[in-house]
Structures are given as C-alpha cells and as structure tokens.
C-alpha cells in the first residue's frame, strides 16, 4: 500500500507539470572578499580572483543546484550567444547538482535552468561571468625601425595602450622607467636623452588586475636638421635668446655645406652652445650632437643598436580589502572621543569610507580613545544620534569631506578648501579609484607631527583634487602637489589644475576650534600605508587638543587683530601697524618670497611684543605671532633664493671675435635683462632682446672698455650682477 501511495503521488506531480526550484548559482574559484565599491544602498563585495568582478584565471566553474518534487534530471546552460548545453544532474533525493566550466576570455551573461525527468523546466536565472587572463598591450607606432630623431615631439612616440578584446579595459601605465631609472609616466622628450641606445619600459595594468611590462630598446639619431630644430625650439621657449639663436643657426647653415667647412662650423657650434645654452639636457643635446656629427664627417663608424620590444611579467593592481567598521570602540579611561561620520544617502559614495573607519578604529584601540561610527550603510554599528557623540572643538576632514555642504560658507571655511574637480586615469591604476593619478607629494611643512614621517618628496597614487578657492589664502599649508609630475600624463587627465601652487593637506585654528584636512586618501592603499595612518592619527590627536602643533595662518591673525579692535584690547593705531606688517608678510608668502614674509612676520611679532595689547587677546596674539615667525622661518630655510650661480668675467678678445658674458642665476622663474655701459657713458642701458643668462658681443675697437651686467628678477624681487669689461686687442 505504501509503494502504491508513493507511485500515485509521483505520477500526480508529473502530471501537474511542477517545475524544479532553481537555486542561485555560484562561481569558483573563490578568493577572499574584494571591495568593488558601493551603491548608495549596499556594499558590493566580490570573491572573484581579479578586481572589479573579473576572474583572471582561465576557467570558471558554474556551480548549479535545484530541488524538485521527484528528481532533477539536468541543467540547461547557455553562455552568451552560444548554443545551449545540457548538463546531467547528480541526484541526491529530490536535489540535483551539477557543474559547468566556462573557459576563455569573455564578458558573458550565462543563462541557466533546471529540468526534471518529465521535461519540466524551471524559471531561468542569469549570472555574469567575466574572464580576462591577458594583460594590456603596449606599442610604439611612432618609432620607425627602432630609431627616434632627436628633435621628435614627445607626443609622436608615446606608447599606445590596448586591452585585448573582450578584456576588462582600462589599460593604464602603472610604472615607467627610462634607461632603468623610474620616472613619472609622462610623454618622453627625446631631447632629454643623448644620441645612442636607450630603453623605455612601461608596466601596464587593466581593470581586472592583469599586468605586464613592455620594454622598448631604441636609438636616438641626429642630423644637422635635428640640431636646427632643437635650437629653434629653445629659442621659442625663451631658453636661448634670439640673438644667440641666430648665431647658432648661422653656424648650422655653414655646416650644411659638408666637408671641412662643416667640421669647423660644427666645432664652433658646440663651443658656442656650451657657453650660451642653459646647463642641463638642452646644452648636452646640442654640444654632444655637434661632436657626434663631427665624428661622422671624420669617418667614425657609430654602431647600430639592436632594437625591439620585450615583454615580461608584472603585477597589476591588487584587490582592495573588504573591511567594515565594527561597533563603537570603548576604553576604560579614554583620552577623548571621536565620531567617524559618513556622508548622507543619495550622495556620491567614496569607496574608502568603510576601510578608513575600520583603520581609525584600529588606531583607537592602540591609542586609548573612543570612537563612534555614524554611517547609513553600517546601521548595525552606528550610533542612533551622532550629535550625542560630539564633544566639540576639533574637526578632521578626509578626502571627500571637502566636497560637502557647498552652500554653507562656515563649513567651507572650516574644511579650508572646497572641491571643484579632479582628473582621471585608466581603470588599471587602482581598484576603487579609477580617477587616481600618479603624482608627487611635496611636504612643505615637516615640523607638524602629522607630516614629520614623510620625506620631502614622495610618489603617490591618489585622486587629486582641484579647488574652488586657493586654500593657501586661508590656512596653514602642510603638503602640496607637484603638478608637473602628472599634468599631461600618459593616458591621464588632470582636470582644471591649480598651477604653480597646489595645496592638498593643511591645518588651521578656526573659530575657537581646530581643523585638520588631508584631501588625499581616496586610494585604499594609502589608508593602509603607515605614513598616512600616522598622518590621520596625529591629525586627530591635534584636533582633539591632545598635542600641540604650529597651525597658525595669516587669516587667523587677521581675525585676532579684528577681534581685538572690536573688544577694545587693540587700539586703532596698533591695529593699523599690525595690519600693515601682516599684509606685507601675507603678500610675500603668497608668491613664496619666504625671506620677505619672514622679515615682515618678525616686524609683526615685534609690534605685538612692544605694543599695548590688553585682555585675553594678549597671550593668544603673542603666541600666534611667534608661531608665524617660526612657520615663515621653516619655509625660508627650504626656499630657493634669487641669486647668481656665477658672475660675468672680464673678457679679452681680438678685433672681430666673439666675446661671451654669462651669469646664470637661481630662483623661481628667473627673468634676465642684460645692460651695457659704453666707454663714453656713465649710464647703464638695457640691451634689446638680450634676455637669457648669456650674451655674445662681437668685438670692435669702439667697444673696448665697455662694461656688461645683467639684472635678474623673479616674484621675490631682483638683483644685479657685477659688471665685466670687454677688452679688444689688435686694434
């Protein structure tokens, strides 16, 4: 009777056409959770072997399962547009399982259904299978036969980057080396290299995490035409004066004739270029090219270079760790409390937020302070009301905190900077930070506890913010970006850039409290870097009043003086004198004339110390005045001062010969203007067009005894060289 009942039940089920219940398929192999960003409603961890939901192994197994009232017979799998495949099920009672291996690089939607013995099919499900095993490919289409003319434009030989179809895309330069020396990934100017053999290596990465290094061996070649083009380029750039350029070009015209005349002309060209072209690659390229061409004319055989491209394995970008904050950290006797606050629902969600919060909690446990979390994506560990967790007085802004509350002026002042835009790069730069760029971080003030651990210059990979207003005008700048290391980068954009001054980290005393800003840290790798963890920790400790640091600014002193006038503790005459010195210091500071800024800061301090400041403002204003002096002294000690590297020398030449006077100078964007005083005059006169560090004077008897000097200027001021005389013999 029992068997009959079972049989009847089975027949009834088949007759009703009940389909199997299909489970959600899984994919293997499985790696540890990888963070691929978040929507505004949920975190999205991934266990694929690569980044951004890609597998970098060649085979991915689809693990299938379903249940049925009788038995699952098979699974029907359709990969992309391929024909459907029937996969027999392994039966275990009413449950059936199977595996199907997907191979080959692809980005496919896999459709699958379960089928029972009676042919009833379940509702279909789909899953995305993305496999990319091949790294991006670099090529140099502008390099013909492995040879590059010395005057070639950098853009004409920049490597192309492609990711083989159907790859993950996002091919980006992660590292670059010229002749084995690491360099920022910028287009290469052949003029910076000498004639002969060189190597150019680039490591590329894609969005899946694949990587490879491509090394080009090539040869720089030269000719009289190349040298002529280089001279014209340097004249156009203002590095060589027009008059000196004309002399050099005239010698190259003589060299076009060939033979002994060309040897003589190129020899003279090399000697003259060595005197009138600025020291460095410009001088080297012209002098050495001339010598190379002379050797060719004299029959010296220069060997050809074995050129070509080799490929070697390299790591692509790493998978971002998936960490979430835990419940509030509590210590028995905490030094202070911190609230880690995430942005509101509906706003752009920066991927670094959960990891940064978790790292902050690590720092808490090691340094005995409490931390609460308030983040709408972590409701289970967030405090109900963030305002109950704030003890006030300190604020730390990390990365996107400067991209918040754009309509609230007080907050923008508190943050010290307002985000305007940022550049972008290929997806192969860094997981969860496709807009990251490779650039140089410069620590401007290393006296702060938050920046002492940084070298003066550091390669970083991060999202580099540009500002709606210049933070330097308001705050105490700690770190800046060197835009020359990433503006025009290969495959990257920089957005609307800041120019010569690009602050990225700062601190300030603000409205009775303390504010510390680090606008980097979109990149999770920096969050895990001990230097940046120290940066965060010391910023938090200072903002909480646990440590002291010099965070004075001209803006703060301006407000202190104004407050003193308002409450009667600073008289009008004293305020005027203080304002004059402070404004002069500020103006010099903005153009990086730190010597001038320091002198005026000292004048401000002296006026405070000797003036009649009363009330509570006295000690604060005095302390801040002394801090201003120390800050300007720190900057002045590191600054490049306007001055001469060498002075012009008195020169004796024969009638009709050329005399060279040179006086190279150091400074910021130095401008030159040569002056002459004739033997029969007591007045100095500017020499038209002579605006480089060297001049050439063709000697005549009438010029004997004339004197020459140069005036150099930069944003910090001007200096004048000693004078040198021209002596003409053979009159």
Automatic annotation (TrEMBL):
Residues 153-165 have a biased composition (Polar residues). Residues 140-170 are annotated as: Disordered. It comes from the Bacteria. It comes from Microbispora maris. This is ThuA domain-containing protein. Pfam families: ThuA. Residues 391-543 form the ThuA-like domain.
């Amino acid at each position: 009777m029992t068997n009959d009942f079972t049989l009847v039940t089975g027949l009834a089920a088949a007759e009703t056409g009940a389909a199997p219940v299909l489970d959600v398929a899984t994919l293997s192999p499985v790696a540890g959770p990888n963070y691929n960003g978040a929507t505004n409603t949920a975190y999205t961890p991934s266990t694929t072997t690569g980044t951004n939901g890609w597998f970098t192994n060649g085979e991915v197994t689809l693990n299938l399962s379903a249940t049925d009232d009788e038995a699952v017979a098979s699974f029907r799998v359709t990969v992309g547009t391929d024909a459907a495949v029937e996969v027999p099920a392994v039966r275990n009672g009413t449950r059936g399982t199977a595996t199907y291996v997907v191979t080959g690089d692809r980005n496919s939607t896999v459709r699958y259904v379960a089928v029972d013995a009676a042919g009833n099919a379940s509702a279909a499900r789909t899953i995305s299978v993305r496999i990319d095993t091949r790294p991006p490919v670099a090529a140099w289409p502008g390099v013909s036969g492995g040879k590059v003319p010395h005057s070639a434009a950098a853009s004409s030989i920049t490597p192309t980057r492609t990711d083989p179809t159907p790859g993950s895309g996002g091919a980006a330069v992660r590292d670059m080396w010229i002749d084995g020396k690491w360099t920022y990934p910028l287009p290469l100017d052949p003029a910076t290299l000498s004639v002969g053999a060189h190597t150019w290596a680039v490591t590329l990465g894609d969005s899946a995490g694949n990587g490879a290094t491509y090394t080009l061996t090539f040869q720089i070649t030269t000719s009289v035409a190349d040298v002529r083009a280089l001279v014209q380029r340097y004249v156009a750039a203002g590095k060589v004066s027009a008059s000196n350029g004309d002399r050099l070009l005239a010698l190259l015209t003589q060299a076009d004739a060939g033979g002994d005349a060309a040897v003589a002309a190129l020899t003279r060209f090399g000697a003259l270029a060595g005197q009138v072209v600025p020291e460095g690659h410009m001088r080297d390229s012209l002098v050495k090219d001339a010598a190379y061409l002379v050797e060719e004319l004299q029959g010296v055989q220069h060997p050809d270079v074995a050129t070509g491209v080799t490929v070697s394995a390299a790591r692509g970008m790493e998978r971002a760790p998936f960490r979430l904050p835990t419940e509030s950290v509590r210590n028995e006797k905490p030094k202070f409390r911190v609230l880690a606050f995430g942005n509101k629902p509906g706003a752009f969600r920066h991927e670094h937020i959960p990891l940064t919060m978790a790292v902050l909690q690590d720092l808490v446990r090691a340094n005995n302070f409490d931390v609460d979390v308030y983040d709408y994506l972590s409701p289970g560990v967030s405090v109900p009301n963030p305002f109950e967790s704030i003890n006030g007085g300190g604020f730390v802004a990390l990365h996107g905190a400067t991209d918040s509350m754009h309509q609230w002026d007080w907050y923008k002042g508190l943050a010290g900077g307002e985000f305007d835009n940022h550049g972008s790069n290929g997806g192969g730069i860094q997981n969860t930070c496709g807009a990251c760029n490779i650039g140089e971080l410069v620590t401007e003030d290393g006296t702060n506890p938050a920046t002492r651990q940084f070298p003066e210059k550091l390669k970083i990979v991060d999202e580099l913010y540009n500002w709606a207003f210049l933070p330097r005008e308001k705050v105490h700048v700690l770190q800046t970006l060197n835009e020359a290391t990433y503006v025009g980068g290969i495959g990257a954009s920089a957005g609307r850039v800041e120019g010569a001054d690009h602050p990225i980290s700062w601190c300030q005393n603000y409205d009775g409290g303390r504010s510390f800003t680090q606008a980097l840290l979109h990149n999770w790798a920096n969050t895990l870097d001990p230097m940046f963890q120290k940066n965060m920790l010391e910023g938090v400790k200072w903002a909480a009043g646990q440590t002291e640091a010099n965070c004075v600014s001209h803006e703060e002193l301006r407000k202190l003086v104004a407050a003193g006038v308002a409450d009667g503790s600073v008289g009008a005459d004293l305020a005027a004198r203080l304002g004059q010195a402070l404004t002069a210091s500020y103006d010099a500071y903005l153009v990086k004339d730190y010597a001038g800024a320091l002198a005026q800061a000292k004048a401000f301090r002296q006026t405070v110390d000797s003036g009649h400041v009363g009330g509570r403002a006295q000690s604060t204003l005095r302390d801040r005045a002394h801090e201003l002096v120390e800050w300007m002294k720190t900057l002045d000690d590191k600054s490049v001062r306007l001055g001469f590297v060498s002075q012009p020398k008195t020169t004796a030449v024969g009638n009709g010969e050329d005399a060279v006077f040179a006086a190279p100078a150091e400074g910021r964007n130095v401008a030159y203007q040569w002056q002459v005083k004739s033997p029969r005059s007591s007045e100095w006169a500017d020499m038209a067009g002579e605006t480089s560090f060297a001049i050439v004077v063709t000697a005549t008897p009438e010029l004997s005894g004339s004197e020459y000097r140069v005036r150099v200027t930069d944003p910090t001021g001007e200096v004048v060289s000693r004078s040198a005389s021209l002596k003409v013999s053979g009159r």
